[in-house]
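Molecular chaperone DnaJ
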Amino acid sequence: MAVMDRTKGTRKLLYTRRAHRFERKNKCIDCRGRGVTKAYVSEYSYEPAEQCRSCRGSGTYEDYKRYGRKSMA
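Tokens:
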């Protein structure tokens, strides 16, 4: 189980680093500051891009904290 604990710790560390980086840039973590989610395209179907659910389309970190997911830290 030590391997699982190390994996959890590593993932949490990487997430906190990413969260701090996006907080400094004032960008939403999920949409990377674009305000929309990535469109899904395959050879059989096409789904257009939608507003980011975490920041409600603004792309800012403040709105991500207000409306978005709860942080892992």
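The two ends are 22 Å apart (CA to CA).
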